[in-house]
Amino acid sequence: MSIEQRVGRAHHVLAPLVYKAVQEHGSEPTIAEDVNDEVLGVAYHEAGHAIIAAALGMQVSLVTIVREHSRRGRVEHEDVFSVAELVLVKLAGLLAHARGINDPYIPFDRADGDLDFATRWFLPDRLLSLATTTNHGLTTYWREVRTVVKVLLSLQTIDGERLENIIGRPRSFRLPGGPAPLA
Hints:
The chain is mainly alpha-helical. The chain is 62% helix and 7% strand.
């Protein structure tokens, strides 16, 4: 199966969950009047990755919305414990992006790399289960996601120490239903 077919299949399976997440979440209060939707979407996308990675106990060393070549932003993290946990982090970008800009359709074409990775490892039913877990984690930590977005829009890059200050480590920061972070 080609990358396009796998990503298309993931889109088909995940679209109802993303749509439901956006509908249940409702319209997001404006963070910054002078920011276009693309930049705002990238900030939510990368913040989603970073927060779920931290909630899983991964050490996040960098979050940025600075464009590099074809990448619109990136998160650097260590301590990946399993492929399933890495897929949770990958799916968080798409879900946070959709929720943050209140549009369930745009993020799919912005997350091809994340979806390609996820579909290499999991069949649609398992992928949907992981996306549901990720969405629950984003709901739990949405305040932190929004705070990271605000800082990213101001500074464009956040290092690991600043991220820990934002999310309040070393408090018990974990993904609901997921493993406790390693201290």
